[in-house]
Amino acid sequence: MTENGAPGVLIDVLRVFCGPDGRHGNALGVVREGSALPDEAARQALAKELGFSETVFVDDPERGAVDIYTPGLRLPFAGHPLVGAAWLLDIDVLELAVGDVFARQDGEFTWVTARPEWAPPRTLRQYASAAEVEALDVPEPGEWVYAWGWEDEAAGRVRARAFPGRGDGIDEDEATGAAALLLTAQLGRALNITQGKGSQLLTAPGPDDTIELGGRVRLERILPS
What we know:
This is PhzF family phenazine biosynthesis protein. InterPro entries: Phenazine_PhzF-like (IPR003719). It holds the Pfam family PhzC-PhzF. It comes from Streptomyces noboritoensis. This protein is an alpha+beta fold. The chain folds into two domains: 10-93 and 216-224, Diaminopimelate Epimerase, Chain A, domain 1 (Roll), CATH 3.10.310; 118-213, Diaminopimelate Epimerase, Chain A, domain 1, CATH 3.10.310.10. It has four helices and 14 strands. It has helices spanning 40-50, 79-89, 130-134, 177-187, and strands at 10-18, 26-31, 54-60, 65-69, 74-75, 93-96, 99-106, 109-114, 123-126, 145-152, 157-163, 191-195, 199-205, 211-224. Strands 1, 2, 3, 4, 5, 6, 7, 8, 9, 10, 11, 12, 13 and 14 form a 14-stranded mixed β-sheet that branches. The radius of gyration is 17 Å and the shape is globular.
């Protein structure tokens, strides 16, 4: 049992936005029995102890009501936790305070539809080439930076890295759905993003200024709380 956990609660550890070979992806903790940790302080403590970039607490699996935390704060919206939760719960709608997020399965990909204005502010910083992005060092804590450059502009292929700048132990985020939404909204086109060590995120503009965000998900392990 983790120090801040609840007896008998299991934590599904997923990898979200895996590459074509099934590797990489961003680790995500999902607490299916969110009612076992009903208060915000207990959830924040567990998210900090687990140390994933985000942890999801499922408040109602049938309605898809979920609550998202980083190691340092609660988030109203985040991309990779929602793709992971949609895959794990196998439902069509996820309920958030900001609005409903629609989900679908398409072969090996899980997709969610969201609005870019739900995403937290990010600094989108373009570099002249993918090689420049790859060569970047982790910056000092400060602003949240999504560094990106074209691998193949005609094909919509992007190389990206994400630096949260929070000082909470997450120096680089392996795969960041919210930032991908913002970049897609800025560029106004579908993107195929390689982020981090080899994660893959797909995006596509949808109707009414929505954006679809898709990726592969796999179950890595199950942890006792």
